Amino acid sequence: MDLSLSTRTVGDRTVVEVGGEIDVYTAPKLREQLVELVNDGSFHLVVDMEGVDFLDSTGLGVLVGGLKRVRAHEGSLRLVCNQERILKIFRITGLTKVFPIHTSVEEAVAATD
Amino acid sequence: MATVELRFSALPEHVRTARLVAAAVARRAGVDEAVLDEVRLAVGEACTRAVGLHQNAGITTPVKVQLVEEEKQFSIEVGDEAPRSAPGDRAPGSAGGDMDTDEDEMGLAVISGLVDDVEVTAGEHGGQIRMTWPTTPPAAALS
After folding, report:
1. CA distance B53 to chain A (A)
2. Strand order of the sheet with strand A3-10?
3. Quick one: closest CA in B to A22, which residue?
4. Element (H, E) at A13
5. What pLDDT, on a 0 to 100 scale, did the predictor assign at position B87?
6. Domain B2-142 class?
7. pLDDT at B142
8. Which keywords does UniProt give here (chain A)?
9. pTM above 0.90?
10. Which residue out of B98, B105, B106, B118 would a mutagenesis test of the A interface target, given it has the greatest number of A Cβ atoms within 10 Å?
């Protein structure tokens, strides 16, 4: 199982759909994708994690790095996740306070706070 | 002797293999199904940390994972050979860059958040993370 990435634009948001496993081996690909989007001027990102089977601290580090990058441009990075085992990792690291986590892409795209 | 022992070159692509093997052996040993995700994540974090320590220190020897099935418990020991400056030193960033320290600490934070019984040791010959989970007796596991 590898990492799959696809992006699409919804209004002023860019949705990054992630599938597979985000770990020390695959996380650099996600980092590259986020860096590329920000460099191309996409500052409002929605990362859809519904297809993610595994996430570790390396993946969390990449997401935090992405958040730092978009914030430098007054942008946003929202997550879509309903999977308890993935949410648990955000909770034990305290990152639920850092990332807005939504239950659907529609909700994340509509969010403005 | 370990029930299953795994040695792998300190490369990120092998961490997934270690996770899969550890989860398979843990399941066989009777670790609760609900906890297997945690085992997978914790062993992945420990191996990721060991790979980083070996790479930062330029160590070419493999990372060692021991999966030990005991009565009523299952243990995983992940050992690295990265020397620490002082015995008992838990911060491995001393010889490497500061950049990796954050990720290393996040990995340890995840492990201690997930596993109740965890022991981290380090010395001049390397370090070890030992994690232990209770197992269900086989009779109960079959029912």
Report:
1. 13
2. A3-10, A13-22, A44-55, A76-80, A101-102
3. B16
4. strand A13-22
5. 47
6. alpha beta
7. 56
8. Phosphoprotein
9. no
10. B106
